[in-house]
Amino acid sequence: MKSFFKIIFSLILISFIIVNIKVAFSSHWQFFLIYDYNDQGFSLPYNDVGDKISDDFPNISQTALPMKYLKARYLINMDSINKAKNMLYKAIELQPDHMAPIQLLASIYLKEENIDSAYILSKEAFNKMPNHNIHRATYFEVLRKLKKVDEIDVAFDLVKNNLEPKFHWYDYIFSKIKLQNNKEEIKILINEFRKKFPNDDLDAIEQLENMTNVGSESYNLFAYFSGIGDAHFKEENYNKAVEFYELALNFNKESYLLYENLAIAYDLSENYPKALDIYNLVIDKFKPLDGRVEFYKGLMLIKTGKANDGCMALSQAVNKNFFLETPKIAASSAYISLCSNN
To answer: Is 230 exposed, middle or buried (0-12, 13-18, 19+ CB in 10 A)?
Structure first.
């Protein structure tokens, strides 16, 4: 009898040791999985992910994310979409209340233009965890494709007053512009946003305001052509940059930054009269506060032999505390270097 109990005890002890070894081994590799997940990267080859990391035991990571969900990310990155789907469905079977696999499946179906499946899954993920940015982003994108304006309104009411709702506001305003672009309604929403988030970096909301003014389709074309212009500018192909900036202006005449870049491109391609006209247009029409346009205008005027006018423009850039990040030149340093004798 004693030997029987010894055998049972030994088996239990061996099972306990095996379980702990598996957990310890998994914990080591989970560190890399979680790191990649948080970094949105894929530093591990899938051979390591697939072969060395069990997703059955343990099937939940130390951060409570399903292991099959974490591994499915790598399959998607490898374009093994069907395998990823199968793994995600298994993750949902094991943890039906966890929304991460459901959301990821919805995003796959959205890319495949399987909108009905994307709608069902993204709606479930959003309704269970509405304040999650990824859940909202997928759900709202599906609703935009389906042109479900009323449902977007209902969804936004669920999240607009949560602790960190500004990204919900961005997405909602963008959706309303894309689907309706009722300028009065958008203006009210943007004003409400500004009151709610007075200390927020307003670049994003200003872009949405700009989109409202020019229309979403025109804005898309503006962004496309100005992006090509920026690429040519970085390659120092300034004549080509001018060409695409001018095209972009056909779709948006409200972006002072586009005018500034166009003026600088004309300046660097040595079309100084045209550059001066646009520098002055930016100053007179848009009245920017950062000093960038005065800085470049001043340098151009000095370069073309109009030192007094150039130094006056540079002094205005100094008063606005302009600092050129690359190659790290302060307007005050340029003024001292170029204008100390004027």
So the answer is: middle
